[in-house]
Amino acid sequence: MQDKQHVGVIGGGIIGICAAISLLDTGHRVTLIERDAPGQATSFGNAGIISPWSIIPQAMPGIWKQIPGMLLRPNGPAGVSMRQGPGYLPWLIRFLRESRLDRAQANSDAMQLLCGDAVTLYRELLRGTGHDDLIADAMYVHAFRDARNADLSSLGYKMRRQKGADLERIDAADLRDLEPNLSHDFQAAILIKGQARARDPGRLGTVLANKIKALGGQICRETVRDLTPVSGGWDVITNMGTHPFDKVVLAAGIWSAELLRRFNISLPLAAERGYHVSFGDADLHLNNSIMDTDAHAVASSMDGGVRIAGVAEFTGIDAPPNPGRLRALKQIAQSMIPDLKHKTPDTWMGIRPSFPDSLPLIEECKDLPGLICAFGHSHYGLMMAPKTGRIVADIATGTPTNIDLSPFRAARF
After folding, report:
1. What CATH class has 60-115+137-196+269-354?
2. Dihedral angle at the C-alpha atoms of 17, 19, 25, 29, nearest 10 degrees?
3. What is 6-43+203-267+358-412's CATH number?
């Protein structure tokens, strides 16, 4: 690597932020380009889970039986726009192919490569910022209304245990002791231990973005219009002008695929919208992150109140938030935590960039030297970001990695 190569990072979500820090740590000059305040878009609205054991892909054996119920239930965890739905059919076909047992196991192995060190790596990223308390130890509590479904021998839990996860099943009485504010409708839970949670994902993004500047990096609040290869590097064209770089990291989430289309690169990247409701006036505290396994929604206490995040909605990128989805999520929140009844939440919607196998794209484009892709992290961006950032820095410096990166290459499609 030439000394002090200038790398442009397109995208200021948590993936781009972690990539920028890792690049600065390896001696690059870095400019991060983001339209909004860094870390305040999709990264802001997640459930805050930082789990080495969120390694179960969305496409699992038997999922095809569950999809109709997910889509048709009024308060179901998934939805497809009637207008946009046909356009997602090729993606869905790929998704179902990935649900074969062999594919699910291989995808889980690859997810563990990115998630396994997440807690440790976040604590390293926060070191010296004065905000170490943004990461708090916590368990991930999978809560069940039907105790029969809290089965440690089911495939997802079995896969976690085979990889070393510490799991425990508890009954209703122990669950009430652990989380007294949770509805008594829940009759059992499975505890996933050895995890953490972000007390404020938006604040985490702000703190780490400030670290970029403290390390000598630059942040430009601009909208990227195009990128063009030039002799010895790349030009990034924004609404404010042209930025020349030696290399570029494309970490712009769902908008990354659009920027690649000009190079005739087509990828099965879906715009999967997620929602959250946040109750800032809730006088209660959850000790851990809690998933309602029926609704596939996650509740967690944060510095700004109690947040419940969920829903996978497939529709147009520019479509407005669906008020029905927000109403349903509010109802789910109040069914999980009765003390939230009669309270009015703040609401949010963001877009997850999702590939059918739950894995991101992380590689230098084969025919476009100097263009490094790092996007498509689906539901797992917060957990996968620190490791992704380190891999991006290794690719940029030509440093051999000690892991197999083939599961994250475009050739898999």
Report:
1. alpha beta
2. -80
3. 3.50.50.60
